Amino acid sequence: MIKVLIADDHPVFRDGVRGVFAAEADIEVVGEAANGHEAVERAAELGVDVVLMDLRMPEMDGVQAIAAIATRAPGARTLVLTTFDGESDVLPAIEAGAAGYLLKDAPTEELLRAVRAVRRGESVLAPTIAGRLMAQVRTPTGGRIVSDRELEVLRLVADGASNRTAAARLFVSEASIKTHLQHIYDKLGVRDRAAAVAEAYRRGVLR
Question: Which residues fall within 8 angstroms of residue 164, CB to CB, at 6 or more apart?
Fold first, then answer.
């Protein structure tokens, strides 16, 4: 069972999201939070698996809450669910530790898939977010950043492939994929898959 916490300052929106999960046998909404501070406290208290986090909230904004949850509730994965899709919103959230980023107008099935994917340890970026990052791409300096094989891994990760799927497509072990990912993180100065994809688009490594 995937335990979900909904963090948003609009009660009507929280009710709507709760309704999305009502018929799902493997997902349970175990709590709600109306501000960032409450989201951090409830995530730690309830031992949740996934936090659905809005970015603009009172008392503590979403980015601050994401970073605090990573410390207070390290077992929880945060999926941003917001209306803001600018680079100044997306990148800070991912750098703070968000495992995924969706917009509030995402179809129900996309939200359900994202929650399950994030729980599995995968990263999720809405297609429109990836598109905006690509549109704002900057040409990297100093030559090639990643190796050809690391670039192949990055492309698969950007397409939403899990470590197992990437390993199967490249005919290598999952351990090799993990090693490539760690090298990618080190080269791009990031900590996780979602941040690696965002930074790769920003630098022009992915197009």
Answer: 174
> What is the C-alpha to C-alpha distance for residues 91 and 199, in angstroms, rounded to an integer?
8
Instruction: Flag whether pLDDT at 137 surpasses 80.
Output: no
The domain spans of the chain are 2-133, 137-203
Mean pLDDT of the region 33-58: 96
Torsion of CA 74, 25, 163, 124, to 10 degrees: -70
d(CA 62, CA 155): 28
pLDDT of residue 138: 45
Give the whole-angstrom CA distance, residue 125 versus residue 37. Answer: 25
Confidence (pTM): 0.67
Rounded distance between C-alpha atoms, residue 40 and residue 205, angstroms: 34
Q: Which CATH number is associated with domain 137-203? A: 1.10.10.10
Q: Which of 166, 167, 76, 157 is nearest to 123 (CA)?
A: 157
Q: State what percent of residues in the chain have pLDDT above 70.
A: 92
Q: Which two tokens stand for residue 58?
A: 């009172």
Instruction: Report the DSSP beta bridge partners of residue 2.
Output: 27
Query: What fold does the segment set 2-133 form as a domain?
Result: Rossmann fold (3.40.50)
**Tokens (6 digits) for 199:** 């930074």
